[in-house]
Amino acid sequence: MTTAVCFQCGHLKFGSFMPCTQCLAKPQTDNELIVSLAMSDHYFDQATLEAMGEYTKENGHPPQLDPESEKTFRRNFEEVKASGVLDQMLRERDDN
Ligand SMILES: [Zn+2]
């Protein structure tokens, strides 16, 4: 399972798109989904994720990605979205 940082409270959770076990937030908007996708162990090591979680907790919002990474994440996200996989994942998530 993927370790990911909750975009709302900074808690480390399992699965980028899964509801947070701490604050129950689940990413809905494109921006929330992109930041959730980015803040996962696909891209960052555990120590970095914990630091991102701390930042999110203290500031009430996730750290800003640098523009170059943000562009890459957004492109990856658009591809996943266009493939229909995203819709299916969100549907399955919300059915549970
Ligand atoms: Zn949370």
Structural Rg: 13 Å
Unreliable stretches (pLDDT < 50, length at least 5) are none
Number of helical stretches of at least 4 residues: 4
Helix content range of the residues, please? 40-55%
Proportion of strand residues = 5-15%
The strand count comes to 2
Spatial arrangement of strands, main beta sheet: 1-2
User: How many structural domains can be distinguished in the coordinates?
Assistant: 1
What would you note in describing this structure?
With about 100 residues, the protein is mainly alpha-helical. It has one domain (about 5-95). Helices cover about 55% and strands about 5% of the residues. The protein is built from 4 helices and 2 strands; from the N terminus they run E-E-H-H-H-H. The protein has helices at about 30-40, 45-60, 65-85, 85-95; strands at about 5, 10-15. Strands 1-2 form a two-stranded antiparallel sheet. The protein is globular, with a radius of gyration of 13 Å. The two termini are about 20 Å apart. The model has no long low-confidence stretch (mean pLDDT about 95). Zinc ion binds near residues 8, 9 and 11.
